[in-house]
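G., the chain you wanted modeled:
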Amino acid sequence: MKYLPFVLVLATLPVAAQEAKVEAGPKPPAVSAVLAARQTLTERVSVTGTVVPREEILVAPEVDGLRIAEILVEEGDRVTKGQVLARLSRETLATQVAQSDGARSRAVAAIAQSRSQIAEADAALTEANAALKRAQALRTTGAGSQEQLDQRTAAARTASARLASARDGLRASEASLTEIDAQGREQRIRFGQAEVKAPADGIISRRNAKLGGLASSAADPMFSIIENGALDLAAEVPEQRYARLAIGQKAELTLPDGSAATGTIRLIAPRVDPVTRLGLVRIALASETKAASGNFMRGAIITNQRETLAIPASAVLFTNGGKSIQIIENDRIVTKPIVTGLVDGASIEVQEGIAAGAAVVARSGSFLRQGDVVRPVIGGKE
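Predicted structure as tokens:
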């Protein structure tokens, strides 16, 4: 009986050793995980392009062959509609206007003369008709001769013809005055067109006019004006993202100096270049944008934005069966298929497959299998 304690001790040794062995075994691997949570995602389409005038007005002379006498604006000047940009030599036009004024004075005098002739011829016709009536009365009574009646008849006809001729002369003089007035208006218009004016408000983008040169509508325009100073970004977008664009979508852009700018899609071209596979869009730049025509710009168009359930894009597995993720449930790996949506940088929307709060393996990979035991590490804490 005195050896009994020793026997009991020996019997318990294997059990203690077994427990110590279990406690000393390897721990499950630590796996970084994130909790699926709702956040605002913004889907963007990258763009690059060149700044161009929204509407560029070409200003050409309306009168050819005149020497450029004065230039009143330079490139970069802001002008208003009707402002004089340049003046052409007007000596020849002034002479033509003076000649037209002289011709009009002669036509007015001719009209006055024709009216006097009409009055004179009308009086003569009245007198001749009266004499004819007297002669006819005398001839009826037998007191007058046939010869006298014939003379009075001829005189009346002559007076009538003179009156008709005077009236025709008046109509001719009035027609001449109308023609001269039309020519005079044309000459005055040409005289006014010797001042080259801005057809709209804007900014002078190019000046081709040179002092002493001859104005010609067939040559390069004298000036180019950016209407209202409005600028667009002519941007190119890959065809696979072209269908996501819509008029009115906002754009976040970067100027060459690194400063930020904003814009709105104004126009989407109806075709994609078959060689480059790029489509052209016009982005109307905000009026305060400090850009110049010809500048290069890059940025992104915001095609969609909403608050939704999101996870890191690195958590998504792409297989022949579709997209899936690995989540941790009860310290074990569970693979679940998902349906994704918006992509915003390193985040991706999950439309179907998991709920908010699920522990998602942050970087999924082939080293983890369904059912593997792991130690989740969320936010740096186990």
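The chain has four domains: 26-41+308-378, 44-54+229-305, 57-86+195-225, 91-189.

Shout if anything looks off.
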